[in-house]
Amino acid sequence: MRQPRLLNHVRNWPAWTADLLAFLGMGVYLAQAIVYAYTTISNLDEGAYLLKGFLFATDQYQPFDPGISTNKAPLAFLIPGYVQLLFGPGLRTGRLLAVFFGLMAVVGTWLAARRLGGRWLAVGAVLGIASGSAIIKIYSMGVTQSTIACLLAWSLALVLGEKRPVWQLILSGVLAGLMILVRQNMLPVLPLLIVYAFWQHGRRAFWLFVPGVMVVAYSFYIYWPHILQLWTWVPLVKIPSEVLYGGGGVSIWNPEISVMSRWLSIFQAVRFHFIALFGSIVAFLFWVRPSRWRSIVEFRIGAALFALFWGLFYMHFVAAIALDYCVFCFKNYIAFFNVAGILLLVVSVGSWNWRIPVFTQVFLVALSLIVFSGIGYSAFEDIGSFALGLPAPRMRDMRILPGLITWWDILSQRFDLDVNSAKKYAAALFGLFAGGLFICLMYIGWQRTGRHVFNSINFGAFYASSLLIAAILFSPILGGSYGKPDCRSNVILANEQIGEHLSSIIPLGSVVYWNGGLSTVPLLYLPGVKIFPAQINNGYSFISGGDSHELYRFGYWNEEMDAEWRTTADFFIIEEWRYPEWKQFLSPAEFDEYARTPVGTSCLEETRLRIFKRKE
To answer: Are 211 and 330 in contact (CB under 8 A)?
Structure first.
């Protein structure tokens, strides 16, 4: 298929300009990542990965030991754990490790895109990530998103294409196997890459198959049979009863998420990962039969990436949205594999059908209007108040009356909506209006200049390309408040100051009860103290009722265990805003209180920690 002349002109520019722009994009990514590393508020997952990892690395516990929940694959904890053992425990080490993995994910994506689509498309791939402030923020925390993105990007860079050296196939298999040992939800990657490798490389695919399977098999051998508790969701896998929880009780974490909230989560994911998601849809709409691809090699790559990206998307959609595993984690889950969507766009664009049928053009425009509306809806917290204040015509009996009112007047008086609901509807209407305006501007531009400059494509292809380019330019805006730093202050330094304060008070060997916030990062600065590991997952691992012995085996806790811990702990660490519910228990007659931490764990109010010691 003949490509737009403008694209050919760009490809004639000096090669070094493309590489220079790519490196500048990496610099932009790194600068943002460092800012987020120092300003993002720590969450429960980050505290769990870092603290459990350090406990494992220092042999205080082992994965799947009784008393501590190993709810993710072992390397999710062991990688940050051993890095902390080497460079020192704490939030600084965990965050800088995440920044490193995130940057390496960008480098791996660039190398793959450069080889598969050329230097200029590789620049687009880098900018697609570097402009996504919300994605960078996710990649800059001490969680597993950046680790997986790095492993996936390099695994794909090493295996995709023809005539891959044996060492690259071996390394690709190892990295794909390691992915499964970091996050069990990445299970489909290795088998899909094995299928692709046999399709493209024939018998040489055994160099990928054998190392990948051996890496996974070895970890199963080490942690057998307890590791099977991570795979209960896999069909046809028979799990021995001794590794299944059977203690009864009721989890206190059982939120009821409305249908509209699920749509909110879906469109948040679309907003943050627009290039990967909408770009993959465009790639499908512009798809051509294998004989019309530039080469059969590129077709195989495109088919493999399509299956990988949308297979993982479907799996995580079902788990997060349909099965309530974590509805508002959906945007974070796509960060695991969005590089596959970006590479799909890169490898397929050279073989697109640039003159798509009229029906496809209409469908594309209609779909984009739905997406614009959904993006507005998902950003209601940022633009809802503004949208409510916009002027609207006064109407009665389908007649326009003199004067103007606001959309808040319409939505509150005529439809009896509360402020929160009105913001959502107004934001959705604003998104719809913005989408309609963008379509009109693109059509005018196409009519006046586009059809002459891009003589080999029709409006649908021009519109889709323009929308993807605009998404790169406006990605920081799409991130909204989520893409902004959480704090102006240094969160890492604050936690280090808290750790220094705690260690000056609490001696080695003390038994510490933790209720100091969702993230247990401050406990990283207290080596040598004893904690109750089930508290690392906070209320998410609390089961009301149930068999205490069985609960303990799987790292859960209940009222009986909590009562016992309260009677045996030497020190209690309580976050300020949580103190009122502890006031009666921590009476001055039985406990001495030390000076509170000089700063809070974040810039949020009442996040300083209060320290109480049981009297002798």
So the answer is: no
Query: Is there a contact between 316 and 330 (Cβ–Cβ < 8 Å)?
Result: yes
Whether the per-residue pLDDT at 553 is higher than 50: the answer is: yes
506 CB-side CA count, 13 A: 34
Radius of gyration of the chain (CA): 27
Mean pLDDT over residues 104-122, rounded?
95
Q: What percent of the chain has pLDDT over 70?
A: 96
| Full set of structural domains in the chain with CATH | 13-351 (no CATH), 378-482 (no CATH), 491-614 (3.40.50)
Distance from C-alpha of 99 to C-alpha of 147, rounded to nearest angstrom: 10
pLDDT of residue 251: 84
User: Torsions phi, psi of 411, nearest 5?
Assistant: -70, -30
pTM of the model: 0.93
Cα–Cα distance for residue pair 79/485, rounded to 1 Å: 26
Model pLDDT, residue 390? 85
Per DSSP, the residues of 57-107 read HTTS--TT-TTS---S-THHHHHHHHHHHHH-SSHHHHHHHHHHHHHHHHH
For residues 443-470, average pLDDT: 82
- CA 274 – CA 293 distance, rounded (Å): 25
User: Do the Cβ atoms of 470 and 476 come closer than 8 Å?
Assistant: no
| Residues 548/67, Cβ–Cβ less than 8 Å | no
